[in-house]
Amino acid sequence: MSRKLSRAALALVVTPSVVFASLSTPAQAAEADQVNLNILGVTDFHGHISQLKNKDGSIKEIGAGALACFVNKEREANPNTGFVSAGDNIGGSPFVSSILQDKPTIDVLNAMKLEASAVGNHELDKGWDDLNGRVGVDGTKLAKFPHLAANMKGVQIAPSHVVEKDGVKIGYVGAVTDKTSEMVSPSGIKGITFGDPVAAASAEATRLKQSGEADVVIGLIHEGVASEGFGKDVDAVIAGHTHVERNLTEGHPPVVQPANYGMLIADIDVVYDKSAKRVVSVKTSNRSATEVSQACNGGQDPEVKKIVDAAEAASKVEGSKVVATIPNSFYRGSNNEGGAGANRGTESTLNSMLADATLESVNNSTSFKADIGIMNAGGVREDLEKGEVTYEEAYKVQPFNNTLGVVDITGEQFKKVLEQQWRTPAKDGDRPVLALGLSKNVEYTYDHKAELGSRITSVLINGKPLEPTKTYRIAGNNFLLAEGDGFTGFNTHEGGANKIQDTGLVDIDAFNNYLAANKDLKARTDQTSVGVHFVDADPAKLEANKKVKVELASLSYTTEGEPMAKTVKVSFASKDGNKTVWTAPVSADVDNKITDGNNETGQATIEATVPAGAIMMRVTTDNGTDHLVPVNGYTITEADSNGTEGPTPGSDSSGSNKGSDSAGSSKEQQRGFWAFLFGGLLSALAGAGLLVWAYDHGMIPKWMIPSWMKLPKHILPKAR
User: Fold this and answer.
1) How many other CB atoms are there within 10 angstroms of residue 327's CB atom?
2) Fewest CB atoms within 10 A around its CB: which of 152, 156, 417, 446?
3) For residue 402, what are the CA distances in angstroms to 125, 192, 399, 477?
């Protein structure tokens, strides 16, 4: 039986209770009272209007043209078909759409007669003024469809929208994640609050049905929700935001989530009995990109294709310009099952480089002088391959058009920011860690098994220990500095003590200039952060002459092509007067199994003996990582970080990046000065001796000898 035939047959299939209720009614009348509704939906489309294929030729992303063709075919088969979205239609988009401010994406959704969309957090990337004033929320501006958000308070926006099909009133109720305030710039949503999306949607559904405004209610919820918590008046839900595929049919209501980027399309079949005034059945599924494409034999809707073709042509001219040529590739973090970009919880060479670019750009191009550069992993959307880098390729890396700013915070607040990389999964969704990219003059250690909020064990800035009361100037994009992604440690939100100062730089412009200025750009080999956990031991109270087991983490990157450590060495230091004495290093192999979502890839376990008077432990890898861990209450000093006395563990490594280039190494500078002075003195003495010898042998006249050399026997014995 074909899908279309099966849909028609649904009108004949009723529950026993419905059958009994209709015994007094002719069968033909009962059947006529049943309406088969078909609701198609997308979520997290993010401007992916172009079709994308896998290497084997199969369809990966449907593309707007093929999607439109499919929706039209479904409407031909069943005129009671609706098309909706669960939000994030725009924002974080590919170059073809974002360079044109996502107008092509809105145009194709208009052409596809989108009936309603939930507000997604990315609809607010440019603030409420852009969504309301340019895009439009009531269908009268650029978007010819309403944006809905039942849980969005403080502005005029509809919670729901009702359409009628064959005498059945369908109410679409929208809601956006209540974490939206953490994900967009606070300045753009001033005065707006976001309540519980499930509770708000359920309340609006009940209002719609009790008032008679709707017979069927479909939730468009921009959050990775399950069935729990929804009221009985919500008949089905299209979920979003978390970019995963789901079809939850066990609970009430059924929840379907069609992943992201047009890879899938949600399909909800509802049978409604107008006579009984009740929903008879609900069936949900996700239609694959291949299935959608085959429905039109690979064809595309001509109207929508024309819009996409024009956008691709308009973006190609500007995008093809080469901004720089780089000798090395830079990648985002990876999970086991996914390619680069899937893991936002780990260090990556690209995120680290962007932090360096931010710091250098601000310091070289503005009067603001920052101490630290910082970048959020969620703002990095494509990898950067070596060779010629076009404007389009650079744009894809960070497509949000953020401005760069600076904020002054204390060392204590910066440590809090670092602590906030770790999240509570039950509270903050499916990402347990949101790793920050940090400029190369920053390094820190952490205990990955300690309690949340107490994991950072040491922080060095330019080789100097972080001072809790000292003020540090942080350079980053306006989203992150404004407490985006929940980094409240910046304390810049409404009422916060710290203020963001806008540098006037746009991130893409600063990035392009950085690439052009650094022609020998190299990917960072060492790790900014290293996880150190002492098993069954308190690092503040280590026993002398006892073995201690240490579990190490975050010794390697995660993406193929990035540096990965093979071996790690550990050594302890103690003080002998003013001299630092190191124990012989103990080595171990590094396990580079990827830890999905966590900054722990590159693990090893080492047992080492703690010397008497131990003050710190040193962790080095063959990849260049070199970190000091304080023990027994010791505070690491600048002298410790810039050089050590005695044997250096891991001397076969490529060395560490201790501090910025400007900071240098004070010990090395001192050694160089004395070597220069001593060498110069020896040269002077040797020259004087040669003159005296030549005079004694009658080879030069007396007047050539300075008065202080006239006693040759005191300087150099006569050669006989």
Assistant:
1) 11
2) 156
3) 9, 21, 8, 6
Beta pairing, strands 264-273 & 245-248: unpaired
Q: Which stretches of 89-196 are DSSP H helices? A: 95-98, 103-111, 128-130, 180-183
The confidence score (pLDDT) of residue 81 equals 98
CATH (one of 3.90.1150.10, 2.60.40.1930, 3.40.190.10, 3.40.1190.20) for 529-642:
2.60.40.1930
pTM exceeds 0.85, yes or no = no
- 63/89 Cα distance (integer angstroms): 13
Q: Residue 210: pLDDT above 50?
A: yes
Residue count of the chain: 720
Half-sphere exposure in the Cβ direction for 208 (13 Å, CA): 30
The per-residue pLDDT for 682 is: 54
Positive or negative: CA dihedral 261, 485, 361, 346: negative
Residues of the chain with CATH 2.60.40.1930: 529-642
Tell which residue, 283, 268, 247, has the closest CA to residue 84. 268
Q: What is the pLDDT of residue 15?
A: 34
Q: Is 83 left (phi over 0), alpha (psi -120 to 50) or beta?
A: beta
Retrieve residue 98's tokens.
Answer: 């974002």
Q: Is 521 a residue whose pLDDT tops 60? A: yes
CA 164 to chain centre: 41
Mean pLDDT of the chain, nearest integer? 86
- How far is C-alpha 210 from the geometric centre of its chain's CA atoms? 43
- Report the chain's terminal Cα–Cα distance, integer Å: 118
Q: What is the pLDDT of residue 689?
A: 57
3-state class (DSSP) for residue 578: coil
* CATH of the domain spanning 3-146+232-313: 3.60.21.10
- CA proximity to 641, closest of 661, 623, 659: 659
Residues 6+ apart with CB under 8 A from 272: 34, 35, 37, 168, 215, 216, 278, 279, 280
The segment(s) of the chain belonging to CATH 3.60.21.10 are 3-146+232-313
